[in-house]
């Protein structure tokens, strides 16, 4: 918190009563003012708590000019009578001074508002323990205030988290009316609050627009759902917010809803906000929180047994039969990623040391090994990769709309490389086709593309539904193939380089997918409400692939890997419980008991 130039106990007031107010507690400094909690003592002795915004010293003529502007604001706000709009009063007086001592000669401006027992919206969002229903109610109440203001043809123009207070019972107050303006009056000053203003800038001499308030409400919706994220880029706010929400585990429908008021076209922002907020309330009530295990990988340990690495709301964990000694530090005790969206695990270097790349819920990329965890990059979307032919653990991700890769090997620092010719909004899957050449599946501008990085060829567009629920890539004798889950869970197999896609899920929606290039063709695992399904290549005299179901219990995630002895390992999240299977020496599937 910034330090104040004053201390509690000092007095201030109008020139005719300079000790009417007493400073109690400094709150914050914003712009060219300090905000304090203060108490006013009336002539009858009645005391009243107030919020005092003290304008830092200016030229006296400028102070009086601002006072005239504030008087207009106060008069107009009282006349509008908008519920839960906190209307201030204003005064001129000497600077805060000790009681009984003569005030100084200077004059200062004070904005006095009724004290609200609430906290700024961003602080409330970080401390909220009542979940998304409480977030929805706060947003609905804010939208009601803004709609009422707009119906009376006025705009706030400076909506930001600091200017929205949330009381303990969830009631919302909109404060700081310094730039309140009618729609039919030209502007004499433009307002720019970083992170909360739309791409169309206000112009002195132009007219105010309700679209500015609509955009700001969209930024607050994103702040309520992602309170730990930084500022939005006003040029790509809708796309950025949507990527962040998807990465944090929100549905595509909910991410689209938040993006609506952030649209770059002012005419396409929802107005009035009430119906938009009501629709969001239903989406938020229906949303299910991030599962305890949201991503996983499986790989053979040094003895050929399966090791399952998982991530979710509890950070990174790992399990397998006979784990000794520990190969990864606990994320909670080692400053690692607290919540995970994607992981890439592998054994790199001659010593086959276990390492993990992890994307957390805030869009940061981490790398971890036995020694600890380190943050590598921020603002990433999606993570996929594997150990390459050189023994390095490689992860591919999208960052600032461009495909990037990061490599790690024991005893070396993480190195990154940007692919400027490979636009990408999110990485879905990646596999090394041959030495130095990778196939990477990405989403970009509502399209699914496959980049063959290192081949010198252009991206191949796949006729797959954008906003894929999941995807997997694998090598085969016929070339790389991709499995893509559509938004409805439909699974289709795409031969890359040409050929028609084949629907493989037998019309049963899937929630997760994994694939491994293996023996007679790719083996594909699907997870869904009907359990785990494994699509095995045709063998013997059979012409069609075979299906095997290791469990009928609902599953959400699956992972596959191939060991050095060509045996497959399969792991799944079954009703939020980790389960594992492995082929034996005769390539028959056997369940594996995991240490817990």
Written account of the structure:
By secondary structure, the chain is of the alpha+beta class. It contains seven helices and 38 strands. The strands form ten sheets. Strands 1-2-3-4-6-5 form a six-stranded antiparallel beta sheet. Strands 15-16-17-18 form a four-stranded antiparallel beta sheet, with no helix packed on it. Strand 17 and strand 18 form a beta hairpin. Helix 3 (131-151) packs antiparallel against helix 4, helix 3 (131-151) runs antiparallel to helix 7 (274-286) and helix 6 (252-259) packs antiparallel against helix 7. The longest helix is centred in the first third of the chain and has 21 residues, at 60-80. It is elongated, with a radius of gyration of 29 Å. The model has no long low-confidence stretch (mean pLDDT 87).
Low-confidence stretches: none
Shape: elongated
Helix content: 10-25%
Strand neighbour order, sheet with most strands: 1-2-3-4-6-5
Total of DSSP H or I helical runs spanning 4+ residues = 7
Beta percentage is 35-45%
Compute the number of strand runs: 38
Estimated radius of gyration: 29 Å
Structural class: alpha+beta
Specify the biggest β-sheet.
6 strands, antiparallel
Distance N to C terminus: 44 Å
Mean pLDDT: 87
Protein name: Serine/threonine-protein kinase
Keywords: ATP-binding, Kinase, Nucleotide-binding, Transferase
Domain Protein kinase: 21-284
Pfam families: Pkinase (PF00069)
